[in-house]
Design brief:
Elements (H helix, E strand, L loop, with lengths): L1 E2 L2 E3 L6 E2 L19 E4 L2 E4 L21
Antiparallel strand pairs: 1-2, 2-3, 4-5
Length: 66
């Protein structure tokens, strides 16, 4: 779920900022981020993670939804 701009675990309530994988202050946890591309009606995720907390530019949606 997205709550207050953060990816939020529905079970634990942990939150992470999508662009960096970092928890919002005052928390300091970080998770890996991944390169994402959107095209041909699909989302492609490179399975090789970046180090936790790495800033990743958001994927740009250039197609109109079906």
């Amino acid at each position: 779920m997205i709550i207050d701009g953060c990816v939020t675990c529905p079970w634990h309530g942990f939150q992470y900022l999508p662009a960096t994988g970092a928890s919002p202050p005052p928390f300091t946890e970080k998770v890996p981020t991944y390169m994402v591309r959107i095209g041909n009606g699909a989302v492609y995720i490179n399975p090789a993670p970046f180090p936790p907390g790495t800033l990743i530019e958001p994927a740009i949606i250039t197609e109109k939804p079906l």
